[in-house]
């Protein structure tokens, strides 16, 4: 007999169904004995940017082991599945609580229900922040034929690589206008950098690592438009980890203090998403704390068989 698992699908970083970024949340009872290989197959079947697997709580509902998978690999952290899973738990089996902890690969992550009039959830994310030396990878711009050097803030020069935690690394490519952002297309090949450039923050053990490209425009003080590109042909409607990486990077440039950023992503895909990032920088210029906030809405639920 196949094992039956309950799942729910949410649109995250929106309060409107069919906008935001879809997320599948699979409940894994203790009796299921689901392997990591099976989780990867299920994530591939959903074929969403991420799928989470929430195991039964071992401490009366205070915390839940949560695994995050893309269709291709397991991730130590990602913002949109963390927000969506926390929202799901606080809306369903933990509806009487105002907080819950997700034990993900990057560390224990408390999620808090926002107080009225705000809606949604807020979480302090695990941070092992690193701004690497800028790197010139010709494919980052060569695969964007509709853009010229004048469309990039750094022209035809190198672009910064920034990590939010070990294993989550992004090219942060700043553009000069929203029009330039709209002219970008998905990449036709993986964007590689040497793992030696990433050091201890590399996600893989080989010679090169496939990179995410987070392109953005600062439209006004504290407000950003962004797009996130991954493997060939892929664009993500909302990427909390990338937004947090960008928030930490921009806040580092501003200096000591508490900074807030409103990141709008997914517009060009017809999946507008609203992501809130709060970054705190200490007197030494170090990223001390990053918080991520957003809403979610349930779209469907069902049962899958393994």
TrEMBL record:
InterPro entries cross-referenced by the UniProt entry: Phenazine_PhzF-like
Report a single Gene Ontology molecular function: isomerase activity
Query: Which cellular component terms (GO) are annotated to the entry?
Result: cytoplasm
Q: Which residues form the active site?
A: 50
Q: Give the signal peptide, or none.
A: none
Annotated SUPFAM superfamilies: Diaminopimelate epimerase-like
Name this polypeptide is given:
Phenazine biosynthesis PhzC/PhzF protein
